[in-house]
Amino acid sequence: MGQQLPYSAESSGSTPEDDRFAEALLYAWELHRRQKRKMSQTPFFAHLMSVAGLVLDYGGSQEEAIAALLHDAAEDQGGLDTLETIRRRFGDQVAAIVLDCSDSLQQPKPSWRERKERFLARLAEASDSVRLVCAADKLHNLRSLMREYRAHGEAIWSAFRGGRDGTLWYYRAVLETLQQGPPMPIVQEFAEVVDQLEKLVSAGNQPTAGP
After folding, report:
1. Does the residue 174 lie in any domain?
2. Is the residue at 108 inside a domain?
3. I need a labelling partner for 166 at 20 to 30 A (CA). Which of 33, 115, 154, 194 fits?
């Protein structure tokens, strides 16, 4: 994984790399502009920008940041055809990260549990670049989930195919899989948020004392 930010605050003018990131932003917007987030119904594009921001915050390379912007593109917007477009426009490394961050490109998709188990098996063998983008994606998802849980409580689980138990299992399993690889600061933050969510949900499910 690259350890330098792709841009320098002291640099001036545009570089080819800067142009590629801008191109990826526009492409992600074209693909996802009509999508909304579960529960909150906020623009899905905001999630993509947040994931890319986390990748950059944790020292990711520009290739990794571009992949973060496009990490759901093939899965949600066109499958292998979209992946080939990403490969052609942004290179093999970006396309490889996007592919490994995708649950499934099959149509129709396998069952929710099968997709998640297959993804976890791939994640266990994934590159540091994939682990970084995956951790950023899941971290932002968890932050959003916690915000919705505080606002709506147990009602949120109807929006998730895995329900409460499946969703909690999945995020814990992703964390444990990421922890098997070389240490990453973002994985430590992800672990803290997983713990916070589990405690929040546990507290919300405590039986109410009688009179």
Report:
1. yes
2. yes
3. 33
CA–CA dist 149, 77 (Å, integer):
28
- What pTM did the predictor assign? 0.86
Q: What is the CATH number of the domain that holds 191?
A: 1.10.3210.10
In a domain? residue 88: yes
* Closest to 153 (Cα-Cα) out of 41, 39, 47, 44: 39
| Closest listed residue to residue 182, CA positions, set 135, 147, 148 | 135
Assigned token pair, 165: 């138990």
For residue 36, list its beta bridge partners: 43
- For residue 129, tell me if it sits in a domain: yes
Number of domains comprising the chain: 1
List pLDDT tens digits, range 42-97.
888 999 999 999 999 999 999 999 999 999 999 988 899 999 999 999 999 999 99
The size of the chain, in residues, is 211
For residue 108, the number of C-alpha atoms closer than 13 Å in the C-beta half-sphere is 3
Q: Which structure tokens are listed for 112?
A: 């929710």
Distances (CA, A) of 30 to 25, 37, 200: 9, 16, 36
DSSP state at residue 158: G
Look at residue 206 in the predicted model and tell me its pLDDT: 55
Range of the structural domain that residue 170 is part of: 18-199
